[in-house]
From TrEMBL:
The keyword Ubl conjugation does not apply. Its EC number is 5.1.3.8. Pathway: Amino-sugar metabolism; N-acetylneuraminate degradation. It catalyses: an N-acyl-D-glucosamine = an N-acyl-D-mannosamine. The keyword Isomerase applies. This is N-acylglucosamine 2-epimerase. Pfam families: GlcNAc_2-epim. The gene is RENBP. CDD domains: AGE (cd00249). One of its GO terms (biological process) is carbohydrate metabolic process. Keywords: Isomerase. It is an enzyme of class 5 (isomerase). It comes from Canis lupus dingo (dingo). Belongs to the N-acylglucosamine 2-epimerase family. GO terms for molecular function: identical protein binding; N-acylglucosamine 2-epimerase activity; peptidase inhibitor activity.
Length: 447
């Protein structure tokens, strides 16, 4: 037990220090003091190489800052919260293409003019995450009017309310309702044409993202958790449909009725995405108290994608695979990207925390060692995002259209919390005084 505790403690310290360095990088380099919001196209040393603003990444950074502020005492600084509020205001003013419509842009100019719209739900999803997390940390009187209380540690904000700052729980819920309508009722508002030759397919990303929103909005809110309980179960079942070929493969795309599609689309696999879906599902199963689902998720969404996706020659997770072992058509298929490894770290540590299976802890160590060795930049901070198959840096940028202040700090923050909880279970009991009853040994892991 001493060796186990030492290993967990060492990793907790590494993760904690790295989280501090990563957050410092974004705090120093990404804030747009003139127009609000965040620069995400950052070079190795943090220099801005493009001032376009991607709504996915704006919402993610607002969410990340608020989550850090809410969960970690050392990040509870006015600068972090003010930056999150400024990012939230930028989203409220500019994210929607044609208010009061809900459709959000994908790319904005630096001053908030829309450039491009995606025909998907993802800008809206990250907008919802940002608004909900902002509501949780602001503690403004307007949020109490909604009938919900902010966290008890939030002290009242001095001075008048921010008249132009409107994110409320209602803001997040209204956008959530629109997203659910697009997904389950009528997708025409997304603007996708219905072409006769297009296969009726479902990407795993859609129910995954909805399940994540169910967790976000329902946290510590029994009313909303009850409202979205059926949706959460629906999302879980839709994700499970992606386990195909007698349980031997997780496919990224399936038909609307849960069957395998033909061609490259049907054979497409994304190991990192399967692992991310795994911890989304595992969190859902834990909260439902469903041991059968928990075991199934660990087997099919953690162990199975890792066995097929880990490069036996160079280490790291392949980005894409073909279920038949054919050559994938994506040029980057063999590259090693930052986010699958971040998601794998979360998934294996969560799996171990829940099951106590030492295999999962070993896999966490394996992935974490590779990730810290290959992606981390000890000179300038943050992580490189794109490596060759051999693990060499392919792109020196630290941020871009898809990489921002999200996957890396979310991984580190969640792992720090889980490692701390595991260490708490292993904490030696205090020596009993004379006449005191014997202490009950701490359990080694959740069962």
């Amino acid at each position: 037990m001493d060796k186990e505790r030492e290993a967990l403690q060492a990793w907790k310290e590494r993760v904690e220090q790295e989280l501090d360095r990563v957050v410092a990088f974004w705090m120093e380099h990404s804030h747009d003091q003139e127009h609000g919001g965040f620069f995400t196209c950052l070079g190795r040393d943090g220099q801005v190489y493009d001032d376009l603003k991607y709504v996915w990444l704006q919402g993610r950074q607002v969410w990340m800052y608020c989550r850090l502020y809410r969960k970690f005492e050392r990040f509870r600084s006015p600068e972090l919260l003010d930056s999150a509020k400024a990012g939230g205001e930028f989203l409220l003013r500019f994210a929607r293409v044609a208010p009061p419509g809900k459709k959000c842009a994908f790319v904005l100019t630096r001053d908030g003019q829309p450039i491009k719209v995606q025909r998907t739900i993802f800008s809206e999803c990250f907008y919802t995450m940002a608004m909900n997390e902002l509501w949780r940390v602001t503690g403004e009187a307007r949020y109490q009017v909604c009938g919900r209380r902010a966290a008890p540690w939030v002290s009242p904000r001095p001075g008048p309310p921010l008249a132009s700052f409107l994110p409320t729980q209602n803001e997040a819920v209204e956008m959530m309702d629109q997203i659910v309508y697009w997904v389950r009722e009528d997708p025409s508002g997304l603007g996708r044409p219905c072409l006769p030759g297009a296969p009726a397919s479902e990407s795993m990303a859609v129910p995954m993202m909805l399940l994540n929103l169910v967790d976000q909005l329902g946290e510590a809110d029994e009313e909303l958790a009850g409202t979205y309980a059926e949706l959460g179960d629906w999302c879980a079942q839709r994700i499970l449909q992606h386990v195909q070929r007698d349980g031997q493969a997780v496919l990224e795309n399936v038909s609307e009725d849960g069957g395998e599609l033909s061609g490259c689309l049907g054979r497409h696999q994304n190991p990192g995405h399967a692992l991310e879906a795994g911890w989304f599902l595992l969190r859902h199963a834990i909260r439902k108290g469903d041991p059968e689902l928990r075991a199934r998720v660990i087997d099919k969404f953690l162990l199975l994608p890792f066995r097929s996706g880990w490069d036996p020659d160079h280490g790291g997770l392949f980005y894409f695979q073909d279920a038949d072992g054919l050559c994938p058509t994506q040029l980057e298929w063999a590259m090693k990207l930052w986010w699958p490894h971040s998601e794998a770290m979360i998934a294996f540590l969560m799996g171990y925390s829940d099951s106590g299976d030492p295999t999962l802890l070993h896999l966490f160590y394996q992935v974490a060692e590779y990730t810290f060795r290959q992606f981390r930049d000890p000179e300038h901070g943050e992580w490189f995002g794109y490596l060759t198959r051999e693990g060499k840096v392919a792109l020196t940028i630290k941020g871009g259209p898809f990489k921002g202040c999200f996957h890396v700090p979310r991984c580190l923050a969640m792992c720090e919390e889980m490692l701390g909880a595991l260490l708490g279970r292993l904490a030696p009991a205090p020596s009993p005084g004379p006449g005191s009853p014997a202490a009950v040994p701490a359990r080694q892991a959740a069962k």
